Structure formats: structure tokens, C-alpha cells
């Protein structure tokens, strides 16, 4: 999670192709961490000031994210940051993919070019970035296979639009028609230990000792959120589950994980009775270290309506582990 995405970019059919090399990324992260330990061990000194490779030394190094990697040169053991996903199994289904078309608009019908939003057709093995100046995207892959292909729309490295995805309904060719991009609310505070950040009435509270791990997120990006009903637009992401959600709570920036889990609170806009129980289902947009199968949804937490009926919160100690889209289901 803490290593940068290891990717090779080439041009193909007007789309940018990013070939994710997940296992190499993990191995690279471990190699770099071990190398840091060796350097520290070689530089350690005993009481005489002489270098001693056998000296015991501990250190903590921070990556671009706020997570830390602890290492001991006496044992050579490296502790990988522990904000890891549940490892939900992907379908690993190969799908021949030809021409995928989609028109992306905001909730007011404004066309969104690629300068304002990310539109991606991604498998767990390869990602194609759509290009458009008028909001009409055509992504081609020549009938070649993608593994578990999904359409992902939003701001992957920002907080303008909710970044979420849904599996490709069929192939090799498919026209999504018009898809609605979901605008996030105003920035509501930096992602920091012990902080409570709030946007659009949605709050997330981080533990005092929380690890807040960023993947592709600038360190100064603040929290942003939105609550909306599935009927508020055309969202193919919601077609990738058999669950019927009453609400969706969307949060950004994307690619941010937190441990221990953070408490999520949002307005009870449905008017549910006090103490009503709900389930939270998370949308899977990550090809590794994931919290839900790629392009689909998985149950992530339970929640309950407050005694005064004004808000809904995750149960104490059982909050959310990643900033993402969450489908809310009344039990």
C-alpha cells in the first residue's frame, strides 16, 4: 500500500494504457525497505565509534503516505504497514474487450472532458485511460482480453468527483450511454491522526494513533464527501451488485486507507427511526490490497441510527478502512 504504483505507460488507440505490475510493486517495496535496514545497520556505531554490522538498531521511515515502516537490523525483519485490505477474491475472468463507449456528464448535464475527470476501462491486469474533449469517450482494446474489466469514473487523485467503478456488463463492445459523475462536497479538513473531518454533513473521525495511508493522493488533499440516492443519476457502478442501496455515501480522496478503522457519521436523510440498524457495502476499485472484489461491492461495516434520529454512524470499533463509495442498506 505504501509503495508507489509501478506502471508502464504506452499509447494505444488514443487511450493511455497502464500495465499494473502488482507483485513487482510489493517486492520492490520490500527490497527498498530491507535495503534501508542494511544501510542503517552498516552505519551504526559502537562505543568506540567503529562501524558495527552486528549492532542493533531500530528506525522508522515515512513514505509519501503518512504510514511508517519499522525495521530491526539485528533480525533483518521488516514490518510492512498494516493497513491492508481484506484481500477479497476477484473473479479473475478474462473478457474479450473491443470498443467501449460512454458519455460522462455532471448532474446538471454538463459534458466532462478528460481535463476535468478520469474515465478508465480497467482490468485487474491492465488499465486504459479514455481521452475526450467533449465528454464522449471511446476506448478500444482490439478484442483482446482484460481480466475482470470495469468502468471507473471520477477523480482518482483529487477531490472533485467521487471515484468509483462497476464491472463491464458484457463484451466485447458496449455502449454505456450517458453516465452521471458525482460531485463531492467542499473540502472538510486534512487527513490527520485524531482529527474529525466533515464535508456535506459527512464526518470521519480518525483514532489518535491512526495510520492514514495515501497511494496516489497529494499530502495536502483534504477530505470531501457527498450523500445521494441511487435515483439521482445514471450510475452503472450500482448495476454491479444484487444489493439495492437506499443511499450512497461517497468520499474522497480515493486510494486512502486507514487503520484502525475510522468512525463514519452521515445525516439520516431517509428519516429512519432511532436505533435502526444498517449495513455499509464498499465499492471495489483497487486491483490489489482490496476491500471488495474488483468492480463490485462487499459488506464492510454495520451502522445504527442515533438515539435522536439525526445521524447514522458505524458501530464503535467497527468503522471504515478506506475512503470510497459506500452503499447503505437498511436491515
Question: Which terms would index this structure?
Answer:
331 residues, mainly beta, Immunoglobulin-like, 3 domains, eleven-stranded antiparallel beta sheet, 1 helix, 7% helix, globular, disordered N terminus
Describe the structure.
There is one protein chain. This protein is mainly beta. It has three domains: about 55 residues, no CATH class; about 90 residues, Immunoglobulin-like; about 140 residues, no CATH class. Helix content is about 5%, strand content about 40%. It contains one helix and 23 strands. The chain starts with 6 loop residues before the first strand and ends with a strand. The N terminus is likely disordered.
Helix content: under 10%
Biggest pleated-sheet summary: 11 strands, antiparallel
Number of strands: 23
Average pLDDT over all residues: 79
Please summarize what this structure is:
The protein is mainly beta.
Topology:
Blueprint: E1 7-12, E2 15-20, H1 22-43, E3 58-62, E4 68-72, E5 77-79, E6 94-105, E7 118-122, E8 127-129, E9 136-147, E10 150-154, E11 164-167, E12 174-180, E13 196-199, E14 202-205, E15 211-214, E16 224-228, E17 247-252, E18 256-267, E19 277-283, E20 297-305, E21 311-314, E22 320-322, E23 325-330
Parallel strand pairs: 6-12
Antiparallel strand pairs: 1-2, 2-8, 3-4, 4-5, 6-9, 7-8, 7-10, 10-11, 13-14, 14-18, 15-18, 16-17, 17-23, 18-21, 18-22, 19-20, 19-23, 20-21
Amino acid at each position: 500500500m505504501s509503495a508507489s504504483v509501478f506502471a508502464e505507460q504506452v499509447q494505444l488507440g488514443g487511450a493511455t494504457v497502464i500495465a499494473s505490475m502488482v507483485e513487482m510493486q510489493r517486492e520492490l517495496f520490500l527490497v527498498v525497505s530491507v535495503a534501508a535496514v542494511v544501510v542503517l545497520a552498516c552505519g551504526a556505531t559502537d562505543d568506540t565509534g567503529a562501524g558495527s554490522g552486528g549492532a542493533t538498531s531500530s528506525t522508522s521511515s515515512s513514505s509519501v503516505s503518512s504510514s511508517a515502516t519499522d525495521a530491526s537490523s539485528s533480525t533483518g525483519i521488516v514490518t510492512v504497514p498494516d493497513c491492508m485490505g481484506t484481500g477479497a477474491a476477484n473473479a479473475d475472468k478474462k473478457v474479450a474487450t473491443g470498443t467501449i463507449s460512454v458519455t460522462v456528464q455532471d448532474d446538471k448535464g454538463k459534458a466532462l472532458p478528460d481535463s476535468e475527470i478520469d474515465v478508465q476501462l480497467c482490468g485487474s491486469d491492465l488499465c486504459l485511460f479514455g481521452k475526450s474533449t467533449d465528454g464522449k469517450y471511446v476506448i478500444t482494446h482490439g478484442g483482446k482480453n482484460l481480466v475482470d474489466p470495469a468502468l471507473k469514473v471520477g477523480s482518482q487523485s483529487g477531490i472533485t468527483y467521487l471515484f468509483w467503478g462497476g464491472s463491464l456488463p458484457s463484451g466485447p463492445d458496449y455502449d454505456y450511454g450517458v453516465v452521471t459523475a458525482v460531485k463531492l462536497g467542499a473540502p472538510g479538513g486534512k487527513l490527520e491522526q485524531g482529527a474529525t473531518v466533515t464535508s456535506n454533513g459527512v464526518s470521519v473521525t480518525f483514532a489518535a494513533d491512526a495510520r492514514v495511508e495515501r497511494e496516489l493522493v497529494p499530502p495536502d488533499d483534504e477530505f470531501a464527501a457527498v450523500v445521494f440516492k441511487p435515483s439521482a443519476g445514471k450510475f452503472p457502478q450500482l448495476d454491479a451488485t444484487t444489493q439495492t442501496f437506499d443511499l450512497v455515501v461517497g468520499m474522497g480522496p480515493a486510494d486512502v486507507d486507514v487503520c484502525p478503522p475510522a468512525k463514519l457519521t452521515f445525516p439520516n436523510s431517509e428519516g429512519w427511526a432511532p436505533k435502526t440498524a444498517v449495513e455499509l457495502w464498499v465499492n471495489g476499485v483497487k486491483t490489489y490490497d482490496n476491500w471488495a472484489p474488483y468492480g463490485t461491492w462487499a459488506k464492510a461495516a454495520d451502522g445504527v441510527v442515533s438515539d435522536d434520529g439525526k445521524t447514522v454512524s458505524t458501530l464503535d470499533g467497527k468503522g471504515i478502512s478506506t475512503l470510497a463509495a459506500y452503499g447503505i442498506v437498511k436491515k
